Amino acid sequence: MTELTLRVVLVVAAALVATGLYGALSQQSIVMIMMGLELVVNGLVLAAGGIWWAGGHPGNASVLVVVLVTVMALEMAMGFAVALALYRARRVDLTDDATELAR
After folding, report:
1. Cut 0.90: pTM above it
2. What is the pLDDT of residues 62-86, one digit of tens each?
3. Half-sphere exposure of 97 (CA within 13 A, CB side)
4. Using CA atoms, how far apart are residues 100 and 22, in angstroms rounded to an integer?
5. How many beta carbons lie within 10 A of that of residue 12, not counting itself?
6. Separation CA 14–CA 67 (nearest Å)
7. C-alpha span between 33 and 38 (Å, rounded)
C-alpha cells in the first residue's frame, strides 16, 4: 500500500467517524444513535485495517478486520434487540423517554 493510498483510507475513515459522531450526537431516536455509532466503529475498523496493512502485514490485517466486523455485528444485534424489547414493553423510541428506566 502506498503512502497516498494510506492517506486516502485514513481520510475516508475520518469522514466516517465524523459523520457517525454527528449522527449519534444530533439524534434522539435510539435506532439513529445506534446507526451513528455503527459508522464510528466502521471508521475505526477501516483505519485500523489500513494502518495494519501499511505496516506490511496484509494477512493479519484481513483477520483483524473480519474479527472486528464479527464483534461489531454481534454488538449491534444485541443493541437492536434491547431497543426492540424497550419499544415493545413501554412504547419508547426516543432517548428522552428512556430516562424513566433509571428509576
Report:
1. no
2. 788 888 889 888 888 988 888 888 8
3. 12
4. 25
5. 14
6. 21
7. 9
Residues pairing with 29 in the sheet = 94
C-alpha separations of 60 from 1, 8, 40, 43, 49 in Å: 14, 21, 22, 18, 9
Contact 33, 24 (CB under 8 A): yes
Neighbours of 36 (CB within 10 A): 19
In the beta sheet, which residues pair with residue 94? 29
One of 2.40.50.100, 1.10.287.3510, 3.40.50.720, 3.30.160.340 is the CATH number of 2-95, namely: 1.10.287.3510
Cell of 3: 503512502
